[in-house]
Specification:
It comes from Thioclava nitratireducens. It is built from 20 helices and eight strands. With about 575 residues, the protein is an alpha+beta fold. The strands form two sheets. Strands 1-2-3-4 form a four-stranded antiparallel sheet. Strands 5-8-7-6 form a four-stranded antiparallel sheet.
Length: about 575
């Protein structure tokens, strides 16, 4: 009972903390946005790690270890945030920094728990580290499921009481302080119960099931390697989804191999087919990582670095360490499992250092990306319209803004660059400047042959919904492929009037926006989705050939439950619902 009370109280405190973050209390602190971000990271990491370790090592050691983890991580988060202009949504501009902070917060926990229970030398105890790491995953997963079930019961209870004119529970659930506090307490209770029933709720069953994936994943990897060799290293590029698929498969392979060798030889896979599958996957892993590196390098040489591509490169280097270590362990013969476990501990340290470097000037992805784009433009390898001006100014932190300022200084002698920059600047008078921007966007948008030019209200709605178009993205040089298209049609039969589907082929991603007209104004109603000719969903797609097909008139509006656009071998749906 004492353990449960400790978890519930800590969960309640965590809930109150997150309520304070969500309310105006945080803004009352004498801190700027950077300081508030640091406080947010401090509390989040402290409560998350303390709850994870409390049941294993007691509250004193758990609080001490959580503080030792949270304080440096919060300071690093605050330092990394200084590379961005202070705004209320600072975390939204730092996706990769947030991932690095998560790595720094979670990776030390198994080591801290092993040392707390086994002494200073236990940091190298692989069986203990393996068990602690997977126990944390299983406990949090089970506690979150419990939290979801409790909230479902509360919601249904509130609806039931409403049926007899008793509204107090619904009103109580709408109070944020109550919702956050109860959620924290329930999560803490769930973690406590799962910890008490450690023998019944353990990761063993999950790990045993995941081992069964080794043979099919090996089969896919072998087929890919054979095809990769047959095509002499040529990998088809479909947008940027190919490298993401390769990296995901490589991560899955590392995870499955680690699960296969388990914490010691006694617990590792024994069935011959599973053991051979683990060894074969370890030998195929270098080819998967090599293909990902080759695909990523092709993207970088063609379009330069972006923060996302820098993150991919870091992940490729990390996976290369696993791949070489795993393959070498297998090739050296007997004792390969023990060697592989040593590699896992060493790579955990490398991963920690990589996350640390990302949050310091040692690895400034925004600066790398900004310098790369400037170099590409100055070398004449990309046009002014292809420069990610919006991202430089608004998304790549102070380094991007500095590069943007350099381009502004250069624009006096560069008419194309001056035109691209002018599109990004908001109109001061709201009159002639807006008219010029609308006229330029009307010229840049690809329309089907014979289509009526879009009205001013629609152009204004597009500029508001997709600010990227203001950076000159839609402008294409002579002979270059178009980047933006607009289709007006009655896609949604249950919605009065026509809808507008806007297709954008961005430097680092593609997007489909859908707008509808209501009372003379155009409003955004969501994103478009894509399926291929067989009706299978496509989550990442290159819209360049679709835009080219629209420009040639090779398109038609066809029914798909709702009306959709068919062009370039793909079918684009205006709304997933």
């Amino acid at each position: 009972m004492q353990l449960r009370l400790q978890h519930i109280l800590l969960g309640l405190l965590a809930g109150v903390f997150f309520w304070a973050l969500d309310s105006e209390l945080q803004t009352a602190l004498p801190l700027d946005a950077h300081g508030q971000f640091g406080v947010s990271v401090l509390g989040t990491v402290f409560f998350a790690t303390a709850l994870a370790m409390l049941g294993e090592i007691g509250w004193r050691k758990a609080f001490g270890a959580a503080a030792l983890i949270a304080i440096p991580v919060a300071l690093l988060g605050w330092w990394a945030s200084l590379g961005y202009s202070p705004t209320e949504s600072l975390a939204g501009f730092m996706p990769f920094e947030m991932l690095a902070l998560a790595v720094l917060a979670t990776l030390p926990m198994p080591f801290a728990m092993a040392v707390a229970r086994g002494g200073g030398l236990a940091w190298n105890d692989y069986p203990a580290l393996f068990l602690h790491a997977w126990n944390i995953v299983v406990r949090y997963a089970a506690a979150c499921i419990f939290l979801g079930m409790v909230w479902l019961v509360l919601y249904l209870s509130a609806r039931l009481l409403e049926s007899v004119d008793l509204d107090f529970l619904r009103q109580l659930l709408r109070q944020k302080l109550f919702a956050f506090s109860v959620s924290g307490g329930i999560l803490g209770l769930g973690l406590a119960v799962v910890t008490e029933l450690e023998e019944m709720i353990s990761p063993t069953l999950i790990l045993r099931l995941l081992r069964l994936l080794l043979p099919p994943v090996l089969l896919v990897a072998v087929i890919f390697v054979a095809g990769f060799i047959a095509r002499r290293g040529q990998v088809s590029l479909i947008g940027f989804s190919q490298i993401e698929t390769l990296l995901a498969m490589a991560v899955a392979a590392v995870t499955l191999i680690s699960i296969g060798v388990e914490r010691d030889d006694h617990s590792a896979v024994r069935a011959r087919v599973l053991r051979l599958s683990a060894q074969g996957l370890a030998l195929a892993l270098p080819v998967l990582v090599g293909a990902a590196a080759w695909t990523g390098w092709q993207s970088v040489t063609a379009q330069g670095w972006t923060p996302g591509r820098v993150a991919q490169a870091v992940l490729i280097v990390l996976l290369a360490g696993y791949a070489l270590g795993y393959a070498g362990s297998v090739l050296l013969g007997r004792g390969w499992m023990a060697r592989l476990r040593r590699i896992n501990i060493a790579m955990a340290g490398v991963l920690f250092l990589a996350a640390l470097a990302w949050l310091t000037p040692v690895l400034d992805a925004n600066a790398i990306a900004a310098r790369s784009q400037l170099a590409l433009y100055r070398d004449g390898r990309i046009t002014a319209g292809a420069l990610p001006l919006y991202a430089l100014k608004n998304q790549w932190g102070l380094a991007g803004q500095s590069a943007y300022s350099e381009l502004e200084a250069q624009a006096g002698d560069d008419r194309a660059l001056a035109t691209a920059l002018a599109r990004l600047r908001p109109s001061a008078d709201g009159g002639e400047g807006d008219s010029a921007a609308r006229a330029q966007l009307r010229r840049d948008l690809v329309l089907p042959p014979g289509a009526t030019p879009p009205e001013d209200a629609l152009l204004d709605a597009i500029r508001a919904r997709a600010p990227e178009v203001a950076s000159g993205l839609c402008a294409s040089g002579e002979g270059a492929a178009a980047n933006c298209a607009l289709i007006e049609a009655d896609f949604l039969k249950d919605v009065p009037g026509d809808e507008a589907m806007v297709l954008l082929h961005l430097p680092d991603r593609d997007a489909i926006y859908v707008l509808r007209q209501s009372d003379g104004a155009w409003d955004s109603i969501g994103w478009g989705s894509v399926v291929d000719a067989q009706g299978e969903p496509r989550f990442r797609v290159d819209l360049a050939p679709v835009i080219a097909a629209i420009k040639r008139g090779e398109m038609k509006v066809v029914p798909s439950g709702i009306m959709s656009l068919e062009a370039g071998g793909l079918r684009l749906l205006p709304l997933s619902r």
